[in-house]
Amino acid sequence: MTTAWNKSQHTSFLLWDIDREFQNAYELYEQLRAKSGQKRSAWSRLAARSPDDDLAKALSLGREVRIFMQTGKKRFGSRFEQGDSTCHTALEAQLIRIQYEVRELLCDSAVSQAVSIPYDEIITTSRSIRRICLEALYAQFDRFSTPTSLLYLPPPRFKVQYCTFAEQLREDLISSEGSSLQTKRLRPRDRHDDREICPDCDTCVSVATHSGLPDARCILFSSHVKPERGSTKENASYACNSCYKTFDDSYAFLDHIFQKQIGSDFSCLRQSSPDLSIHELDRSLIEQCFKNCLVRELSRTTSEKAAVGQVVVQEKEIELKLNSLTSATSW
Question: What is the structure's pLDDT at 5?
Answer without folding.
Answer: 37
